[in-house]
Amino acid sequence: MTSRWSTRHDREPVDVLPADEPERRHEALVGVRLTAATPGSHLLEYLRTEPCAVAAWWIAADLDAVVRLSADSLSKLHRAVADLRRRGGAEIVVTLSILRALDLSEATAAAPVPLPVSA
């Protein structure tokens, strides 16, 4: 059985399902703006206890952080996003659901698609 490693160093590998049963992971990138009264350390401590949080970054933008969440069901993913606001101290959350990864290898690069020409 193969394993997929998360970017959290304190986590064990997540077992991948057998080939005949596709892996059903639901993932999202969530932009977080903290309330004025919430210190960044509060969000950090909360994310360390959130089982769906697999990676997070402080960013320089209108948001304070971006969090990558991963769950085995949509209901768990929705709960994790809601908990960022309720328990993590987020004033605003912007959720981007991840559909699938892009293949950036040159081996699968397709020929460029010509742009239509206006008459």
Structure report:
With 119 residues, the protein is of the alpha+beta class. Helix content is 19%, strand content 29%. The chain contains two helices and six strands. The chain has helices spanning 40-49, 74-86, and strands at residues 3-4, 14-15, 26-34, 53-58, 65-71, 90-98. It is elongated.
Structural key phrases:
119 residues, elongated, four-stranded antiparallel sheet, alpha+beta, single chain, two-stranded antiparallel ribbon
Produce the secondary structure layout.
Layout: E1 3-4, E2 14-15, E3 26-34, H1 40-49, E4 53-58, E5 65-71, H2 74-86, E6 90-98
Antiparallel strand pairs: 1-2, 3-5, 3-6, 4-5
Compact summary:
With 119 residues, the chain is an alpha+beta fold.
Straight-line N-to-C gap:
57 Å
Q: What integer value in Å does the Rg equal?
A: 18 Å
Order of SSEs = EEEHEEHE
Record the strand order, biggest sheet.
4-5-3-6
State the low-pLDDT regions, or none: 1-9, 11-18
* Overall average residue pLDDT: 82
Helix fraction bin: 10-25%
Strand content: 25-35%
Q: What does the largest sheet look like?
A: 4 strands, antiparallel
DSSP, total strands? 6
What's the tally of helices?
A: 2
Q: What's the shape?
A: elongated
Q: Based on helices, strands and strand pairing, what is the structural class?
A: alpha+beta
